[in-house]
Design brief:
Elements lengths: L1 E6 L5 H6 L1 H8 L4 E6 L12 E2 L9 E2 L1 H12 L5 E11 L2 H9 L3 E5 L7 H7 L2 E4 L9 H12 L32 E2 L2 E2 L9 H19 L14
Parallel strand pairs: 1-2, 1-6, 5-6, 5-7
Antiparallel strand pairs: 3-4, 8-9
Helix pairs in contact: 3-5, 4-6
The chain binds ligand 9D3.
Length: 231
């Protein structure tokens, strides 16, 4: 899978791309991640990417020309899905991650300031994605969340020990509680069944606890109504 990212803060992606899962995926040739500075497609001496909003109201808006230059140069004649990370986007969830893992190469566009000139959407954006209803300062952190979730869907990126199959959300419920050594932590013991050696009993206990937790914390995951608005 190839992912291109356009941002005014490319350095934010350096430690991310070097670390653990993502670093290994790139190293192993399973993922190609190219991060580009939007300012490369500016033409003025100050490498300006923003301007005042028409109609007033304060704040700044990212201007269209650098974005158009970036998208056209990076995509060329390739088939690339162009995604703008924006608070107005479709909320990211497991279903959307799986869809995007199937569409091929992606270009992720990270906005900043009050937003991006509307004509960028009209001309070069295929899809807008949000990671939830809270205010961040730009699309960079959302882009990293999307890249990490997508990488886990690329065959071979997640090792057997960490199995994608066992992950939460695929089967629509939360995880069961986990314990490791030491057996007693400030007087709290590990549940007896987990040290019993009875694997069938352990499996039953885990399923029961996972269901209890899901019912209590995320009933939307259990009902036929999954809590999402109409799609
Ligand atoms: C005043 C209206 N705000 C829009 C809901 C302004 C605004 C807030 C945050 C404009 C830009 C931003 C920057 N955020 C993103 O670019 C962003 C984001 C987010 O803030 N939350 C969740 N997902 C995303 S994806 C991109």
């Amino acid at each position: 899978m190839r992912i291109d990212v356009v941002t005014i803060f490319p350095e934010l992606f350096e430690p991310f791309a070097a670390t653990s899962l993502i670093g290994r995926a790139i190293e192993g040739g399973l993922l190609r991640l190219d991060v580009h500075d939007l300012r490369r497609w500016t033409t003025d001496r100050h490498r300006t990417v923003d301007d005042e909003p028409f109609g007033g109201g304060g704040g700044m808006v990212m201007s269209a020309p650098p974005w158009l230059g970036a998208v056209r140069e990076l995509c060329g004649d390739r088939q690339v899905t162009r995604i703008l990370l924006s608070p107005q986007g479709r909320r990211l969830d497991d279903r959307l991650v799986r869809e995007l893992a199937q569409v091929g190469d992606l270009l992720l566009m990270c906005g900043r300031y009050e937003g991006v000139d509307e004509r960028v959407r009209e001309l070069v954006v295929d899809l807008e994605v949000s990671i939830g209803d809270y205010v961040l300062s730009g699309g960079e952190v959302p882009a990293m969340a999307l890249i990490e979730a997508l990488s886990r869907q690329v065959p071979g990126v997640v090792g057997l020990a960490d199995s994608v199959e066992r992950d939460s959300f695929r089967d629509g419920r939360l995880d069961f509680p986990h314990y490791t050594r030491p057996r007693v932590v400030e007087g709290l013991e590990v549940p007896e069944v987990l040290v019993s050696g009875d694997h069938a009993a352990i499996e039953r206990w885990r399923q029961k606890r996972a269901l209890e937790r899901t019912a209590r914390r995320r009933p939307d995951l259990l009902g036929s109504d999954d809590g999402e608005a109409d799609r």
